[in-house]
Structure formats: structure tokens, C-alpha cells
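ARCHIVE CARD
Drawer: 12
Card no.: 0347
Subject: one protein chain, sequence and derived structure
Cross-reference: see card 0346
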Amino acid sequence: MKQNFIANDNPDTMNMKQSSELVQVMNSLLAEVLADINQNMVHAEMCESWGYKKLQMAFRKQIMEKLNQSEWLIDRILFLKGTPRVSKLNTVVKLGKTVPDMIINANKVDGTSIKAYNNAIALAWKAKDQGTVEILSRILEMEEHLADWVRAQRVQMNQMGLENYLNNQTEAASN
């Protein structure tokens, strides 16, 4: 379902320098989101292959959230009369070879993205672009929830031990 976040702001009245800078920052965020989609897609398939159904479903949920985020960013970039850059990824996709590596890699990505979204929100406030502030704030909230999930997985791995944690991620544990 497509969300419409466009507020009563007008890109024609925004300072061109601010608009250009905001589009550039949003394109950078878009590149990060697209890299996250690729990473999560591979991790979901790896977890499915290993029989970790709960983790596979968690990664698939993240993919859907990231797809929504990319759509919102693209819509907003177009609204601001920019051109979405969908062919350039800012980061190398860091694939985990083990479940702990997957979780660690997700945590590294999300820690930097929270800071990037906070900086982008500040820029949108400075540009008096409430519509962009709303979109970025919603994505920031999603990133914070994801960071909480990652932390919870790491705590569970430490408290349960890896073997018990992984046993808990199987389809049999889901029933």
C-alpha cells in the first residue's frame, strides 16, 4: 500500500541550494536502503537454506520495510524535482557467513543509518520542508526499531549460547 507523505510544502519556494543538498542527502540514504535490501535478501535465503525459519521471516520483514522506505524516498526526491539514483550503492553489501556475522553486520549498518537520518532530518528542518521531515522521521523510527531487534538478537545469542539461539530459530521452534 502506497503511503502519501506529501505535506503542504512547495518545492518551488524552497531555496534551490537547500533543495539540491536535500535531494543529494536523500539519494545517499536511498543508496543505503537499496544496499540493505540486497543484504537482507541474501541473508533471508541463507537462513532458509539452513532451516532458520524465524530468522528468514525476520529478514523478509526487513526487506518489505526497506522496500517501503525506498519507495517513500524515491517519491519525495521526485517531488523535490530531483532524480532518484537507484543504480549506485554507497556501501559494499556485507554478507555474513554465519548468523552472528549477519546480526553484527546489520548492527553496523543500522548504527550509522540512525545518525544519517538524524542529520537529514536536521537539514530538512533547516530547509523548512515538513513533508521530508515526516518521511525521514518515520524511517528513523523504523531504523531504531530494527536496531533494538538487532541488540535483542545479540543479547539472546550471548545469554542462550549460539546453539540454543539457533535451535530457537528453526521452524520446529515456531510451532
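Annotation on reverse: The CA atoms of residues 107 and 150 lie 6 Å apart. The chain has one domain: 17-87+94-174.
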